[in-house]
Design the sequence.
């Protein structure tokens, strides 16, 4: 039995919706404001996640680091502080979105890596609209995965 | 409670998930404990009362209670019923979002950009999801601007009401956590703006446009109206100039 209350489920869904709004805007700002150093950081994180993918590791810390890296690349501390203060909730959300999505770890991590790469590509291209759309699309997929939270 | 339970059951059916009734009841009871509505050491309703409350049979209630005992959340004593474990610490109802203080003009600029992002999204969700009661509250608060509290207070209350109408506690929590930041900017804006031309009328027109877009359930228009309003207010605050009426 999954030890998560209906209250937590609602909270988790609301959190993903909130993250779509906040992180979509952070990604758009990152596309405008990113430095060369930000791109190095983001590429490193993606490379780490791709290595973990081959080893069948979930890479939750790296996943969060990527989202925090995008927020930092916006050069607006308010976006960073939202993610930091929601860290525990975000981890809980990542965990449940992954454990119940019916895919093997390696497939899930591959899908996440592909979606992260789309975000990074748009930030590299300084395409704010594409970065926003890619981040929103990624978090929407995560949110849809939480529909399985009711499985007992 | 029953309404909520049915909504969860429907949602899980819609998601194509097989739903075990006892796990739904277990989740509901666990939430009551974790939210502190059933306080530590208090006696739970009797099995018969729980059957009635959740509209389920006794074996379902017993299964849910057994799962809560396994979690260490509930104690059952022969003949005297079930109790919430004395040591259970209810979780905070929602995680609090915290923000850095405003310490420079650069912070203020970042903060105003952030407001545009977050409040634009809150307005878009409010357009999709608001209830009639939330819309009425929004109209009331828009109409009251300057009538009772200070203009800056009334202005903040409008923006808070938009976040409330999103129905997403994270947006409302953010606006509440940002109250002192928002009031700092609004204090300056209204101090200088109040004496200038049609400042109040322009703000009211902007707020009206946001309410209209939300009422029309037009998410894109609501986002645009909110963002335009905040861009206009930001230009006003950072430069002291009126960049037209912004509409």
Sequence:
């Amino acid at each position: 039995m999954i030890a998560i209350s209906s209250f937590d489920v609602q909270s988790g869904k609301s959190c993903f919706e909130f993250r779509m709004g906040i992180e979509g805007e952070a990604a758009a700002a990152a596309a405008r404001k990113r430095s060369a150093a930000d791109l190095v950081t983001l590429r490193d994180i993606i490379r780490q996640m791709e290595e973990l993918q081959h080893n069948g590791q979930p890479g939750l810390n790296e996943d969060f680091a990527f989202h925090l890296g995008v927020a930092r690349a916006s050069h607006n501390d308010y976006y960073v502080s939202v993610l930091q203060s929601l860290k525990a909730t975000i981890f809980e959300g990542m965990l449940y979105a992954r454990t119940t999505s019916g895919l093997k770890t390696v497939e899930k991590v591959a899908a996440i890596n592909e979606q992260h790469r789309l975000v990074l590509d748009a930030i590299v291209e300084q395409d704010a609209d594409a970065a926003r759309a890619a981040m929103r699309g990624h978090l929407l997929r995560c949110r849809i995965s939480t529909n399985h939270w009711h499985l007992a | 409670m029953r309404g909520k339970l049915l909504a969860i059951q429907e949602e899980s059916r819609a998601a194509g998930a097989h739903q075990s009734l006892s796990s739904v009841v277990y989740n509901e009871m666990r939430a009551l404990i974790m939210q502190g509505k059933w306080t530590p050491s208090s006696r739970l309703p009797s099995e018969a009362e729980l059957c009635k409350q959740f509209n389920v049979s006794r074996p379902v209630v017993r299964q849910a209670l057994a799962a809560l005992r396994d979690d260490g959340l509930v104690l059952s004593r022969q003949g005297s019923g079930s109790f919430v474990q004395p040591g259970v610490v209810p979780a905070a109802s929602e995680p609090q979002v915290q923000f850095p203080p405003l310490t420079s003009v650069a912070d203020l600029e970042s903060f105003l950009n952030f407001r545009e992002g977050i409040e634009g999204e809150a307005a878009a969700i409010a357009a999709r999801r608001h209830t009639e009661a939330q819309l009425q509250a929004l109209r009331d608060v828009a109409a009251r601007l300057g009538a009772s509290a200070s203009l800056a207070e009334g202005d903040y209350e409008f923006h808070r009401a938009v976040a409330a109408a999103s129905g997403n506690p994270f947006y409302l929590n953010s606006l509440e956590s940002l109250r002192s930041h928002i009031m700092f900017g609004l204090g300056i804006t209204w101090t200088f703006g109040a004496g200038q031309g049609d400042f109040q009328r322009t703000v009211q027109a902007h707020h009206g446009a946001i309410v209209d877009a939300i009422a029309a359930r037009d998410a894109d228009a609501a986002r645009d109206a909110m963002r335009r309003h905040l861009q206009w207010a930001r230009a006003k605050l950072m430069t002291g100039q009126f960049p037209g009426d912004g509409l």
Remarks:
- Chain A has seven helices and no strands.
